[in-house]
Input
Amino acid sequence: TEGGVLTSDLDRIRTTARTMLTAVLSCHDNMSNSGTAARIAAEAIGASRHLPNMATDEFLKCLSRAALEKAAEAAGVRVEVRVKDTRAALIKHLDGSTYVHPNALFRLTEAEVAADQERRNRSREYGNWDDDPDHDTADLENA
Output
């Protein structure tokens, strides 16, 4: 707000939302277990579009050989005998574009969505209705 009036500046709203995500939500699945919620919120505001270019020697050196080869194959780059050559070929191939490693994106993987659905199904099966929006608690409160 400025002067008590809500802004309609979408860039400012997105920047503020990203700042809030950084300050409040952790994108890690740990004891707070806010990782999934943080990633869903980040995807909802398009945070993946603001990730830096990862087609750099500095970033690609952090990948294992298998991960680098998988990234190269996905980009249509020939895997070389030496990792160094594969990395250089990938960087050259991606020159002029922005590359973001798929694991860096905020969106949930199909496996994560399936695991969440399974967790919800187990929760309902064992009588924990906290996650069940269709469960009517009014009957319990009036008993």
